Amino acid sequence: MYRKYKKLLAVGYAVALFGTLATGSAAGGSLYIAAGDVARPPIGWVDFCARYAPECSTTPSTARDVVLSTKAWTDLVRINKWVNGNIKPMTDMEHWGVLERWDYPDDGRGDCEDYVLLKRRMLMESGWPREALLITVVREQNGNGHAVLTVKTDKGEFILDNQNEHIVLWSETSYRFVKRQAQTDPNLWVSLGDPRSTAATASSR
After folding, report:
1. Residue 180 lies in a domain
2. Do 153 and 123 meet the contact criterion of CB atoms below 8 Å apart?
């Protein structure tokens, strides 16, 4: 009964969310962030690709946005919640003895990039298109670097974040968006322009 109740809540929230977005009232209509010039890939991604070469050996493809149906939203919530609840946060220095390493948290431990990689993998295994699942570098209000997963949909760009149990539109976060993977090529990164702040600039990490 409790599980059924939780499912009904998720469906109800999705319906309410879709209605809000349809009226254009969510986040003042800022459903999509502007992508800019080509940016330098994070060193963590470059190193990840050296160790997981088959996953990065892709060819350019056509950009795709997910049609965010009620079922798709329910699946998104389920995967985000599972990863956030089952992975123990741990810094790369504590985990690997190095300052920066992107990897799958298959041992149940990891930092923000590892959460992102696992969510991305699980969604792709569930049939979601890679082109809509973009690893994104942001800055927290204190200036620290952080990584989240941007999911591009027909109803806006949603953020999956290990620091937030809820999935929200990018414009409802407090982050400054720096750069992310291009939809057409995961090895190509682009800078991001944040219309919420004139101080938003691209920077390398």
Report:
1. yes
2. no
Q: Are 151 and 76 in contact (CB under 8 A)?
A: yes
**Residues 23, 26, 28, 29, CA torsion sign:** negative
Residue 203 falls inside a structural domain: no
Helix/strand/coil for 145 = strand
CATH number for the domain spanning 114: value is 3.10.620
Q: What's the domain count of the chain?
A: 1
pTM: 0.84
Q: Which amino acid is at 78?
A: R
> Is there a domain that residue 68 lies in?
yes
| Tens digits of residue pLDDT in 58-112 | 999 999 999 999 999 999 999 999 999 999 999 999 999 999 999 999 999 999 9
What residue has token string 């691209």? 202
Q: How far apart are CA 55 and CA 144, in angstroms?
A: 28
Considering the domain boundaries, does residue 199 fall inside one?
Answer: no
Answer for the pair 179, 137: CB distance below 8 angstroms, yes or no: yes
**pLDDT in the model for residue 25:** 39
- For residue 87, the SS3 value is coil
**What residues in the chain have per-residue pLDDT under 50?**
1-2, 4-6, 8-12, 15-16, 19-20, 22-29, 198-205
CB 92 within 8 A of CB 109: no
Domain holding 102, by residue range, is: 2-193
